[in-house]
Structure formats: C-alpha cells, structure tokens
Amino acid sequence: MIPLKTLGRFLRPGLLFALSVFLTGCNSAILDPKGQIGQDEKTLLITATVLMLLVVVPVIIMTLAFAWKYRATNTKARYEPNWSHSTAIEVVVWSIPCMIVLVLAVLTWRSSHALDPYRPLESDKKPVVIEAISLDWKWLFIYPEENIATVNEITFPVNTPLNFKITSDSVMNAFFIPHLGSMIYSMTGMETKLHLIANETGQFPGMSSHYSGAGFSKMHFTANSVTEAQYQEWLTKVRAGSSTLNKDAFNALAAEKNHDWHPVTYFGTTETGLFNWVVEKHMGDNNHYGMDHKAKGHEGMSHGDAAGHEGHEMPADAHEGHAEAAPAAEAAAAEHAEHTADEHAAAGHTGHAGSGE
Predict the structure, then answer these.
(1) CA 119 to chain centroid
(2) pTM, 2 dp
(3) Alpha-carbon torsion (17, 22, 23, 24), positive or negative
(4) What would the pLDDT profile of 204-254 be if each residue is shown by its tens digit?
(5) 145-160 pLDDT, tens digit each
(6) Count of H helices and E strands in the chain?
(7) Preceding peptide of 137 cis, ω within 30°
(8) Helices (H), the chain
(9) Closest Cα partner for 182 from 156, 161, 211, 203?
C-alpha cells in the first residue's frame, strides 16, 4: 500500500494545476459585488459557509485519520471491541453543532429583515423608480417619472437607490442582477418590489434566472451604472426618439415571441399608468377584489331595498283614503308588507350573487 504522504506528494502538483485552470475564467458576480446589497449578501454567504465548515472540516479530517489509524494492518492500534460510550465525545458532538445552529439562527433572523427586498434603502438622494415587465423573452423597463421606456437595457446614476416594481405579462420569471444582489420573481397579476443600489460605475449583466420557455437563454439585459451627468445625457437621448409606448405598442411588443436576443429599443414617451394596466388585466373578475365584494353585495341590497320601497310609494292624497277605509287599508297593508318582504329577499339574493362573481 502506498503511504498517504507519498500519494499526496504525487497528487499535489496535479491538483494545484487543475484548480488554477478552473479559476482562470472564474468571474463570479455574486462574489464580486458592486452594490451595498450585494456586499452584505456576500458577507452573509461567507460567514454562514465558515460556520458550517467548523463542523464539516473536522469531521472529514477525523474520518480519514480514524480510517488510517485503525486500519487492519496497524497492529499497534488499541483494540476495544466492548467500548460503547463516552460522555466527553457526546458533549463535543452535540454542543458544538447546537452553538453553530444558534449563531446561524440569529444571523438568519437579522439578515432576513436587513436584506428584505421590499425594504427601501436609506439615502439622501431621490430614488430612481423603474417598472420592469417580463415578456416572451425580453425585459421591458418603464421609467414612470421620466416618461420613457426601454427594452433590454436600464441606465441609472451611481450611488442612487433603485426602486424596482416588477410584474410579468406572460409566465413567471425571475429578475436578477448578480453584481447588485437579490433575485425576485415577476408574476402575472401581481407586483413585486426590489430595492438595489450600485456603489461603482460600470456595466452589469442582468438576466432571467429561471427557465421560462424557448427563448429563455436570450432573456438578458444590461444595467448601466453611470454618473449623474451621463444619466441626464442618456435621458435626453432616449427622449429624442419618436416611438411612443402605449397599449397598442405594448401589445405588439408582447406578441413578438423572440427566440433570439431582442435588440435594445427606446421609447421617447409612454402612456401613463401602463404598468398598472398590465397588472390589472391579468387579475380577472374573480381576483384581488376582496375588499369590494362586501361593498358590491351591500350595494346590491341597498338598490334592491330602494327599488322595493320605491315600487310601493304612495301619493300624499292616498293617506286620506286610508283614514276613511280602515279595514281595507289594513288588508292592503298586510298584502303590501308580504309583497315587500318578497322583493327584499330577491333583492338581497341578487346583491350577494353579484358580489360572488
């Protein structure tokens, strides 16, 4: 049998060469963040990995050491076939993992709130609002405060918070700019939010990180972090375009089921409320109107009640006839009450039926 030291001496150069070749083209965006959110997530990832390695590494080392020490050919190893328990070992085996899990729990709790994608970022600069809509298979970005829109490209000033409002006009997708951090889903009939910031200028790739169809591999865009002056120049260039993004233009763009990468497209003006229109058109008549169901039901009942009462209103001079013909009035009143109750019930059912739609 070849000793481990000799075997390691032969394998070490080959392993180092293979590792160097593997890392040559490695440019992990997650481990090379360009924004505060990405940096915090990198710190969290490294911290959690190190804490878990405190258990994993010793276990691997002890497994190899025990296998070597108590091999069949080592006659000097102590042989204790009746050994079954050690309090010291039990304390170490259970206490260390429990402490690590406790630290990880506290770390996870704090970071889940600190890195909540819906939590706005604190800054003395006004945020840039970007409405992102995933289509087949491209990204549409609307700048509602600037009244412009782009396809497969966003540009924003450095050190400025980005407030993303995200939805989908097609299947579910996932919006992700790895250098800036935090991935979040885009879904039809729903609005998700994401807050990011870039601490450096540069071009950062964005993507759809979940499979969504035939053109998924080409569904990527560029996020440009620029200076404030460059951002204003870019806005001027986009506004100079003659294209307008309205409902007709949006439908035409959505109908293009591109399987290849869709080129960058600029819209100099946009129709107001287009993002909300995209969200609401996928809601349908049965969704997202929970607060209105009760109102609609009551509205139906009130209309029914009013109709019932109006249908039995009597002119003022008719009251004199009631005084002269009391027996006939009592009979008419009884018939009137029964008829009104029937109409109230029908009206009430009508109102509730409407609210359930």
Answers:
(1) 12
(2) 0.70
(3) positive
(4) 999 999 999 889 999 999 999 999 999 999 999 999 989 999 999 999 999
(5) 999 999 999 999 999 9
(6) 9, 13
(7) yes
(8) 4-24, 36-69, 87-114, 228-239, 247-255, 274-281, 290-311, 318-324, 326-356
(9) 161
